[in-house]
Write a structure and sequence with these properties.
Shape: rod-shaped
Largest sheet: none
Number of strands: 0
Number of helices: 2
Distance between the termini: 165 Å
Structural class: mainly alpha
Length: about 130
């Protein structure tokens, strides 16, 4: 059966004869159109990937920039916190010094008061003996 079909195909081709220039031109034109469609599809895909690549690149650039800004902000915040802590520390030292001064003043007052009490007792004792 296969041999019979092959023979029939050969006979049919012989009846048709070689392809005409017009048929060859049609085939070439069709082939060119298909090739152009494939090239256009490939270019479209390539453009799509290129665009995605550029978008990803831009996003990465923005993320790096934002990260730098965040890092700078954090460093500035830390510097400000350090300044604030130094101020607090200085204020505490000043308060501590003021408290020491008050303490010394109170000790002097106590000494003076004790002297006054001794003087008062001794003078009242003298009055008592007279």
């Amino acid at each position: 059966e296969i041999e019979i079909l092959k023979t029939k195909v050969r006979q049919f081709q012989q009846q048709l004869g070689p392809p005409t220039d017009r048929e060859i031109q049609k085939l070439k034109s069709h082939h060119e159109k298909e090739t152009c469609k494939k090239i256009a599809a490939v270019e479209k895909r390539e453009q799509k990937y290129r665009q995605k690549y550029e978008e990803a690149k831009e996003l990465q650039k923005q993320q790096k920039q934002q990260q730098r800004l965040d890092t700078n902000q954090q460093q500035n915040d830390l510097k400000q916190q350090q300044k604030d802590l130094k101020k607090q520390q200085q204020e505490l030292k000043k308060q501590q010094q003021d408290l020491k001064k008050q303490q010394l003043g109170l000790k002097k007052q106590q000494k003076h008061q004790k002297k006054q009490e001794k003087i008062g007792k001794s003078s009242s004792a003298e009055k008592h003996f007279k």
